[in-house]
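Notes from the 1:1 (GR / supervisor)

We went over the backlog. Supervisor wanted to see one worked example end to end before approving the batch request, so GR pasted a single chain during the call. The sequence is below; no edits were made to it. Supervisor asked that the structure be written out right there so they could see what the output format looks like.
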Amino acid sequence: MLKKLFKRLLLAFALLVVGLSMAIILLPSSVSPAPEVTAVFHPDEAAFGEERSLNILLLGVDYNYDSKAQRYTSGARSDTILILRVERKGKQLSMLSIPRDLFVGIGKNAVHGYERINAAYSFGGEKLTIETLERVTGVKIDHYIVVKSDVVADMVDAIGGVPVEVEKQMDWDDNWAGLHIHLKPGKQVLN
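Structure output shown during the call:
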């Protein structure tokens, strides 16, 4: 249940970040240039250039833990993979969610063999993930955003937690990851 909640929070955060970013990029500026300025900056032209659309990869990345519950990033996989497409004309945003368990050839010409697509991040970070996605989907990725799981936790804490209704007693201890969950039935605030 907490993994689903985490994914939902990550998706909500991603949509918030993308929405705010697109609002900044796509909304017309109401600031008049100073008289000595000879050119006017157009945010959409800066973001899109000559292109009619912009493709942004959003990755939600977890951490790995050793036997002493120490966090390390090597081998981390991308649990959330979204391709966001922003259309300059019509100012539309669409999103494609890539299942993390999609079995594909990793890298150009599948040089890393066939694995779940989220393994691309553990083998080669953003670069290999983009390379793999571009080959598999045929979509050119223009920009990417990586959100690590601790950022989501910090955001949840910053807003005072997230209220959830717990249906039954939850007890989970993962000493390897240093994760201990103990929730009683009823309304709880996760932080």
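Supervisor's comment: The radius of gyration is 20 Å.
Batch request approved.
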